[in-house]
Write a structure and sequence with these properties.
Strand content: 15-25%
Number of helices: 6
CATH topology: Rossmann fold
Largest sheet: 5 strands, parallel
Order of helices and strands: HHEHEHEHEEH
Strand order of the largest sheet: 2-1-3-4-5
Structural class: alpha/beta
CATH superfamily: Response regulator
Distance between the termini: 13 Å
Number of domains: 1
Number of strands: 5
Radius of gyration: 16 Å
């Protein structure tokens, strides 16, 4: 199933993992505002806005309120690779708690920009084959995330 065909609830569930910081960390530093930087490889359109709204809604359901204990900064790259590269570098310099890149073309510049900041990627096809992670079970490094689709399914899609 392609990522853009996912229902809003499924998208929220996927991104809910980003909000899974330990309760102990929250209890130790309740005044600290967590920073999530989202770099979209899509345009600022109604579908993209819906995904971000769902993400923020799920964060709120988990107790992460934008502006109160979490700051979610969304950057819309679309197809502008110069903007995406520049923004990935700026985001890494700003040291957010996590960077969430949407699409393989966004993940590559984010990976080049940081090896320290946790990165939770979305809509990336074949992260192992592209060399982003060591394996799906044990990604290693600072990258983890969600595939666009299972690689073995691609052959079936072509057959279909």
């Amino acid at each position: 199933m392609q990522f853009d065909q996912l229902k809003r609830r499924e998208f929220i569930s996927l991104l809910g993992g980003v909000a899974g910081w330990p309760l102990a960390a929250r209890a130790q530093q309740p005044e600290r505002i967590r920073h999530i930087a989202v770099l979209m490889g899509a345009g600022d359109d109604p579908q993209g806005q819906s995904w971000i709204a769902g993400f923020q809604q799920r964060l709120a359901e988990l107790g992460w309120l934008n502006g109160r204990n979490v700051q979610v900064d969304v950057h819309w790259g679309g197809a502008d690779m110069d903007y995406i590269r520049r923004t990935a570098t700026e985001l890494a310099r700003s040291k957010p708690d996590v960077i969430v890149p949407y699409a393989s073309r966004v993940l590559s510049p984010v990976r080049e920009a940081t090896r320290d900041i946790p990165v939770v990627f979305l809509a990336t096809s074949d992260p192992v084959g592209l060399g982003f992670v060591q394996s799906l079970a044990h990604p290693g490094g600072n990258l983890t995330g969600f595939m666009l689709y299972e690689v073995p399914v691609a052959g079936k899609l072509v057959q279909f």
